[in-house]
Design a protein that fits this description.
By secondary structure, the protein is of the alpha+beta class. It is built from nine helices and seven strands. The radius of gyration is 20 Å and the shape is globular.
């Protein structure tokens, strides 16, 4: 068994060593020889060139519930504007994906175009991608999908119902067992390490946190859209 495999959650020495080695200081910032190689700058998107796009509806209504209330209120607390669990369709999924990780604004400048995203991200490198793992849904077959904000579409990576794999990985979470669709996030580490080097491991958690906060805020059904 390797040293990594034998470590437990109580073995914090490696974590503390990483923290000390990668934290910012006046000395570390001045001593670093790292520079940004713009000829090798990674794209802020993951692109599956040979997979067919499944366009998502671009028009979806707001739910009218304040974001802070949506985040802070437990799911089992009655709130005006929120209803119980239901099966999502493409319109619901487009709202959730668009408001959590979509492109909110485009700004052109002499050197190109800046794409503003719904969630903040270190260096605007947007290395966190969203994936959808579903059973059979209205308008969408069971499968594993990647959300591409560039053209606001899904691309199917696997056909069939793979939710059980995530259920097992979660320790058989009851929430996942009964979920008709599961949203998962993953980092393309290099897209952040290009600028931040070893600190990118910190940013995997910081940046996914801002994205997940958006997900919490928008995963609130509208009471007037029952059955959608």
């Amino acid at each position: 068994m390797s040293e990594v495999e034998s470590m437990s959650n109580r073995d914090t020495a490696a974590t503390l060593d990483y923290h000390e080695a990668t934290k910012h200081s006046e000395w570390s910032l001045r001593a670093s020889r790292h520079f940004l190689d713009f000829e090798n700058q990674p794209l802020p998107f993951k692109i599956y060139r040979n997979l067919e796009a499944i366009p998502l509806p671009r028009s979806f209504p707001a739910n009218g519930l304040p974001a802070l209330l949506a985040i802070s209120t437990p799911a089992d607390t009655p709130v005006s504007g929120r209803e119980g669990e239901r099966i999502p369709n493409l319109a619901t999924l487009s709202r959730v994906l668009g408001l959590s990780a979509g492109i909110t604004k485009r700004k052109r400048y002499p050197g190109g175009e800046i794409l503003f995203r719904a969630y903040s991200n270190t260096g605007a490198l947007h290395h966190i991608d969203l994936y959808l793992v579903t059973g059979e849904l209205p308008g969408l077959s069971a499968g594993v999908y990647h959300f591409d904000p560039r053209d606001f579409a899904l691309r199917r990576l696997r056909e069939g119902d793979y939710r059980a794999i995530l259920v097992e990985a979660s320790g058989r979470s009851l929430d996942l067992i009964r979920a008709p669709a599961i949203i998962a996030s993953a980092s393309t580490y290099w897209r952040n390490a290009w600028k931040y080097e070893a600190r990118a491991y910190r940013h995997c958690f910081w940046d996914s946190g801002t994205l997940h906060a958006n997900l919490l805020a928008v995963l609130v059904p509208r009471s007037s859209s029952r059955g959608s």
